[in-house]
């Protein structure tokens, strides 16, 4: 089923330039996804969410969204694999966008076949709309001049706490190998989206330790302490 067919008479407007579109967001962070939900809402687009590659593939077997925004770091693999699959599928999804806060991620996404890229944190309405609109066909563009809205969305802090709870669960498991690499990537992405520099730095230190093959027990302990501090802060509120 093609989601565009569900709303054939809904045309984009200057105020809501993505009206009539459905965007599939493949994102494991609830905080980042909440930001995307607000951006879609303000732009007129509907949103569907998948939190891993397997969920996204199940969704795409049933629906064909207008655009897909794919986080590169997912719990069951790299988003670049899904980008490559979609870029080479016929008929092709109209717009394929990669997203990440990691250095070098833009190049990997574009090489995999993405049409565009969004650097995390994704909060500015104008930037989000421009990346989607730049890759839409002319008949899906709003008519006439469009006022640039540079507002920023502010995701609900509860979504950040949900991500911290998920990180705490991951830390409670026997984390090693790929699971530890994913933990560092997940916390780093969430912290960047929330502009939590201290937590992002701790996750980055853990990631570097892993890449260099050094013991990571101290780095894991530091990260765990910061995650639990943030959970305690939310509970106190």
TrEMBL record:
Source superkingdom: Bacteria
Presence of the UniProt keyword Phosphoprotein in the record: yes
A single BP term in Gene Ontology: phosphorelay signal transduction system
Entry keyword annotation includes Glycosyltransferase: no
Bilayer-crossing regions: none
PANTHER family from the UniProt entry: RESPONSE REGULATORY DOMAIN-CONTAINING PROTEIN, STRESS RESPONSE REGULATOR PROTEIN 1
Protein name: Response regulator
Organism: Rhodalgimonas zhirmunskyi
Taxonomic path: Bacteria, Pseudomonadati, Pseudomonadota, Alphaproteobacteria, Rhodobacterales
């Amino acid at each position: 089923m093609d989601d565009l067919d569900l709303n054939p008479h809904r045309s984009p407007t200057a105020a809501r330039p993505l009206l009539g579109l459905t965007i599939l967001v493949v994102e494991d962070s609830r905080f980042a996804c909440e930001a995307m939900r607000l951006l879609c809402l303000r732009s007129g687009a509907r949103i569907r969410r998948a939190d891993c590659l397997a969920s996204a593939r199940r969704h795409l077997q049933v629906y064909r969204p207008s655009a897909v925004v794919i986080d590169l770091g997912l719990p069951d693999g790299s988003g670049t694999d899904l980008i490559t699959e979609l870029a080479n599928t016929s008929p092709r999804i109209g717009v394929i966008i990669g997203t990440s806060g990691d250095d070098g991620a833009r190049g990997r996404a574009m090489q995999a076949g993405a049409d565009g890229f969004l650097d995390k944190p994704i909060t500015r309405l104008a930037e989000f709309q421009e990346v989607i609109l730049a890759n839409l066909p002319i008949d899906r563009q709003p008519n006439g001049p469009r006022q640039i809205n540079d507002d920023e969305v502010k995701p609900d802090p509860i979504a950040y706490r949900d991500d911290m709870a998920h990180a705490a669960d991951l830390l409670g498991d026997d984390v090693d190998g790929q699971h530890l690499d994913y933990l560092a990537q997940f916390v780093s992405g969430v912290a960047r989206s929330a502009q939590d520099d201290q937590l992002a730095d701790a996750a980055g230190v853990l990631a570097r330790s892993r890449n260099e093959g050094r013991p990571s027990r101290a780095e894991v302990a530091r990260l765990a302490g910061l995650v639990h501090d943030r959970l305690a802060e939310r509970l106190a509120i």
